[in-house]
Amino acid sequence: MSRSPSPKILVLPPSPLFDEIMSAQAIEILESIATVDWNRAGRFLTHDEVAERIRGCTAVLTSWKSPVFDEELMEAADELRIIGHAAGSIKTFIPASVFERGILVTHAASTMAYAVAEWTLTVMLMGLRRAHTVDRAIQAGEAWPDYTAFAPAELSRKRVGVISASHVGRALIKLLQPFNADILVYDPYLSNEDAAELGVRRVCALEELMATSDVITNHAPTTEETNGLLDARLWRVVKDGALFVNTARAAAVDYDALLKELQTGRITAGLDVFPSEPLSLDSPFRNLPNVILSPHVAGRTIECQLRFGETIADEFARFFTGEPLRHQITGDMLLTMA
Question: Is residue 2 included in any domain, yes or no?
Fold first, then answer.
């Protein structure tokens, strides 16, 4: 009796990205379940190169800078049954037509959630305790800053407004529990039952969250519905002394309106994302003493990067052994996900 040929997996990320996201464990899993076609080109493959190499492959592991899976590429993918994205969003390169072909799609975005939530919590603590301000004073040569003049505050028992119960939003909520924070969540898709299970209070009006929270943190996905969600009207109702943290995407925030409020000095912010990146050298955000800036790094940890490859390797192993996927994406999810 002839033996069934081993399934084939195409792995697109080249080095050095490959080395950042593919641990020895992930490599071992993939090689134990299939014949693996590694990208040894030392660069990202072109659309035509992927179309040539994807023929006969059952699975493909994608990551950043993967080509769009358009009709031409899908026609070449004659045996493709599953795509595993070892990174965050799939919306820029996997159109709805892929799902219509019955191809399974899974991703590792949820594995980034803890890293982003941890950074968000770090910025909250820094912003409330004014760690960045006193650090700058010492670095600038001030002999011994009067720390009490910076009005440091604790996170404990503060009201924290979480915009979107996304993967990151939920991970952050768990991290906030030991602080006994009063957590409000604005998310039209969060049920009262889910809110109760998370231990939060669901608010139907974003105005209530913005006007009453001591700390506001944005985790809304970028969709047509959330574009420009935090507009000038909402920034005007934010109470004095509030802290805003954005580690999601910039599209949900009117940054011009936010800048005006920050320039008054009445609120503070921790910003990891911006409408245009990298942030221009002449950006007025760079000169604000009440802002903590970071270069879109909330999810960038050594551990998080390696979880990307391990998560997709595990998903492929589950697929080939007939087990249900843990991180599957459906076509219906495209409208509301990041």
Answer: no
CB 55 within 8 A of CB 81: no
C-alpha count within 13 angstroms, C-beta hemisphere, residue 197: 7
Please name which of 302, 243, 304, 251 lies closest in space to residue 273, comparing C-alpha atoms: 251
3-state secondary structure of 226: coil
Which of 1, 11, 23 minimizes the C-alpha distance to 304? 23
Same domain, 158 and 289: yes
Please name the amino acid found at residue 136.
Answer: R
Residue 4 has pLDDT above 70, yes or no: no
* Domain count within the chain: 2
**281-294 per-position pLDDT tens digit:** 999 999 999 999 99
On whether the pTM is more than 0.90, the answer is: no
Residue 3, pLDDT score: 40
pLDDT digits (tens, 9 = 90+) for 116-130: 999 999 999 999 999
- Which residues, in sequence order, are bridge partners of residue 269? 244, 291
CATH number (domain holding residue 42): 3.40.50.720
Q: Same domain for 270 and 161?
A: yes
Domain-located, residue 89: yes
